[in-house]
Amino acid sequence: MNKFDKIEELKEIERKFKVNVTQMSFIEELIPKNIIQGYIHSSSSISTRIRIIDNIAFLTIKGGESALERDEFEYEIPLSEANEMMTLFCPKLLKKKRYLFYQGKLCWEIDVFEGNLQGLIIAEIELKDINTPIDLPDWIAEEVTEDPSYLNINLILRA
Known about the structure:
The protein is mainly beta and about 160 residues long.
């Protein structure tokens, strides 16, 4: 794969929720992925992110005004270059463990944050269509999709 081959281009439709921790005993049976990410650029409508998931690195560009629906372009990049970019351009890094929980054909991404954000757990679900119905599991608390303080780009300011 050429280092500039695009991994994914899509309209990202994503809903976010706080999690009721007392209902999450199932998470102990899941194997997490370790995520470190930083932002090279961010504005109200565009962000450029470097993310390392275990030992695989990605450059992601997201754009759009809505937290629910945004354009997303993602490219796999060499790990050494991701580490160098983080060192040079990312003054703050966000660290979390991500657990995947499947519910029928849908996949919940459960992020357990570390560092200054320890104790925060956010569940995200990506949907094919903005009107896709979902059955909320009992471990889901309030929806925070439209609350900008729960966007990773803003959470990193507290990291």
